[in-house]
């Protein structure tokens, strides 16, 4: 089926229940690098991405410029720690919804995460979510959420062989996901229970606790997608 619209999925606590062990692994790798006393309220960072968080704290501690080249060893330490935890589980219904969009609708799918690549890959694989690496974008080379989502969309255009998408719906669990969607002019659906009140304050039009309650017809009605 030709894909005229697109779904952009965040990963942590949107598709996979993995935020806590991701944060623990990120902090472990920073500690291994000599970075301590990290502010873990990601809302306080200009960009809530692994690469930007590491960059900000590296420059705070060592008082010198950060290079993305440093992420190669950092990512290995982080990933090695990540795999010591039990496998990531899907957010209820995530596997089915990804398959549904891909096989039964005119929506393509892509994945845009502030995570580094290897942990992101592991989360999706462990949760049993079927995906193509060709439409996955991470923060290894991009600091901003907007840059990551824009790159994922560009990858999806190439993957599905389309010039553009009529409508793009972004799904995420974080306040930064809302802001990113607004900045890029995308529709947005909030996922998970954590930020319900904040979603309301930001006038998010559609929110689901997990994927079993998602209704595509309702989303299309809210966003006026024909």
TrEMBL record:
Which InterPro entries does the record cross-reference, listed alphabetically?
A: HAD-like_sf (IPR036412), HAD_sf (IPR023214), PGP-like_dom2 (IPR023198)
Entry keywords, A to Z: Hydrolase
Top-rank taxon, per record: Bacteria
Its recorded name reads Haloacid dehalogenase-like hydrolase
Q: Which GO terms describe its molecular function?
A: hydrolase activity
Q: Which CDD domains does the record match to this protein?
A: HAD_like (cd01427)
Give the organism, scientific name: Tenacibaculum jejuense
* Keyword Cell division found: no
